């Protein structure tokens, strides 16, 4: 027999006045939280863009985008490498913080929709933002380790985006009033999330580690650390462990997990942003001062 799913309206009726008041307080806190996140992401993005556009060394920090096609001039295909353009790395890095600020602002504009979703254990705004911002982050990290082919980079971007769409699907499949947690979409998303890292580590194995600047290693391992904390938060949220348990009202653990997501997003983006700015401003294999 299929599990009985209680509607959002029916769930609301199960909350007493104290629970409703506490949930309202938490939602007000989330509103202020989103204002803070909008400002913090936006200020850092503007600062990064300004520094990257005015510093001589940072303006020189550009990485190529290439394509390789077969040319049949000798009776058999000969790979031909063509550089299609250069990416101003630091300026583009600011884009993922701009994206975060933009989506937090969207939450504030469409607050009623956001609250309606949060009460049902869903946040489409988060997953659509991650599908763009985290995909851009892994795109840029791939560039640092020598993946310059446009087609490969687009594939990495898209499969990372799919990982986040599986995260959204996991939320849609597991409402707060569920009697069983279905994690199949989570595992599909985990598979998608591993693929870009396999590509990056394959490229690392092809070069001498001593030729890679220390700030690039720092970016890799800092981002990898935070990358792993997101599914951990999701797991704790869905299995209602500790602070993630519904201790105050049905779905209260999801509200806590929502704040954790926002903190992780802020810290991961901030650290990556300033590691790029600080590292690229030092003499290294990419920039010679």
From TrEMBL:
<keyword id="KW-0472">Membrane</keyword>
<feature type="transmembrane region" description="Helical">
    <location>
        <begin position="94"/>
        <end position="115"/>
    </location>
</feature>
<protein>
    <submittedName>
        <fullName>Uncharacterized protein</fullName>
    </submittedName>
</protein>
<feature type="transmembrane region" description="Helical">
    <location>
        <begin position="30"/>
        <end position="51"/>
    </location>
</feature>
<feature type="transmembrane region" description="Helical">
    <location>
        <begin position="186"/>
        <end position="204"/>
    </location>
</feature>
<dbReference type="Pfam" id="PF18761">
    <property type="entry name" value="Heliorhodopsin"/>
</dbReference>
<feature type="transmembrane region" description="Helical">
    <location>
        <begin position="216"/>
        <end position="239"/>
    </location>
</feature>
<keyword id="KW-1133">Transmembrane helix</keyword>
<keyword id="KW-0812">Transmembrane</keyword>
<dbReference type="InterPro" id="IPR041113">
    <property type="entry name" value="Heliorhodopsin"/>
</dbReference>
<feature type="transmembrane region" description="Helical">
    <location>
        <begin position="136"/>
        <end position="166"/>
    </location>
</feature>
């Amino acid at each position: 027999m299929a599990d009985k799913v209680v509607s959002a309206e029916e769930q609301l009726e199960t909350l007493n006045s104290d629970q409703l008041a506490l949930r309202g307080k938490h939602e007000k806190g989330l509103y202020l939280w989103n204002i803070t996140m909008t400002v913090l992401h936006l200020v850092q993005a503007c600062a990064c863009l300004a520094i990257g556009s005015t510093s001589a060394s940072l303006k020189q920090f550009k990485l190529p985008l290439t394509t390789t096609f077969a040319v049949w001039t000798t009776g058999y295909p000969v790979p031909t490498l063509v550089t299609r353009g250069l990416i101003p790395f630091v300026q583009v890095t600011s884009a993922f913080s701009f994206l975060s600020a933009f989506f937090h602002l969207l939450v504030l504009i469409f607050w009623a929709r956001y609250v309606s979703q949060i009460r049902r254990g869903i946040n489409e705004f988060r997953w659509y933002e991650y599908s763009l911002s985290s995909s851009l982050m892994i795109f840029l990290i791939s560039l640092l380790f020598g993946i310059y082919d446009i087609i490969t980079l687009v594939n990495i971007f898209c499969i990372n985006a799919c990982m986040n769409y599986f995260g959204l699907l996991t939320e849609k499949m597991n409402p707060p009033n569920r009697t069983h947690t279905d994690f199949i979409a989570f595992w599909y998303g985990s598979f998608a999330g591993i693929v870009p890292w396999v590509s990056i580590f394959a490229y690392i194995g092809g070069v001498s580690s001593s030729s890679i600047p220390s700030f690039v290693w720092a970016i890799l391992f800092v981002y990898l650390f935070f990358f792993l904390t997101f599914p951990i938060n999701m797991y704790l949220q869905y299995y209602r462990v500790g602070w993630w348990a519904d201790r105050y009202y049905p779905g209260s653990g999801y509200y806590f997990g929502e704040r954790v997501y926002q903190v992780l997003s802020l810290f991961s983006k901030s650290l990556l942003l300033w590691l790029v700015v600080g590292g690229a401003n030092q003499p290294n294999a990419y920039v010679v001062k």
